[in-house]
Amino acid sequence: MKKVIAATLTAALLLTAASCGSKPQETSEITAATTVVVETETSATEAPSETTAEETTAPVEIPAWEGSWQATDTEEHFEISSVTADGFKVVFWHYEEGQIEEFIYKMEFDNEDRTVASEIGTGKDHGGWEYTFNLNGDTILVQSKLPDQTFQRTEAAET
Q1: What pairs with residue 99 in β-bridges?
Q2: Are 155 and 75 in contact (CB under 8 A)?
Q3: Rounded CA gap, 105 and 91, in Å?
Q4: Mean pLDDT over all residues of the chain?
Q5: For position 59, what pLDDT does the model report?
Q6: Which helix (H) or strand (E) holds 159?
Q7: Which DSSP state fits 84?
Q8: Helix/strand/coil for 44
Q9: CA 145, chain centre distance (Å)
Q10: What is the DSSP letter of 105?
Q11: Residue 122 φ/ψ, nearest 5 degrees
């Protein structure tokens, strides 16, 4: 009888030990799953606060580049459009071989204040030189391989 009781107790202990051994594994899996959920919730929580931080930072205002501009000393003129935080598009009517011709340029801002812009790329990309526009209120100083030239905003663009 003692042997039957001992065998039953041994079997019960083994069963208990075996079942205890599998419970922590289940708990670990649950813990791992819980960790993933917590991390996901944390990531979701962090994303809006990053956006909020960016929104609270004062963005640099883009100066008033857009509009029509006329040279102060020639018939040359240009129109600036499609102004973004990166740059703008210029349709430039300037002298080429003695005639006014239309050229289209894409410009990129060269400084944080967005008051200086030049053609996208480097001077080497454009035959050794490039146009650089310097905005100062209602005037733009255009620098190139030619002498610097000043352009003023036209009346039509101000309305």
Answers
A1: 96
A2: no
A3: 7
A4: 76
A5: 64
A6: none
A7: -
A8: helix
A9: 32
A10: E
A11: -120, 170
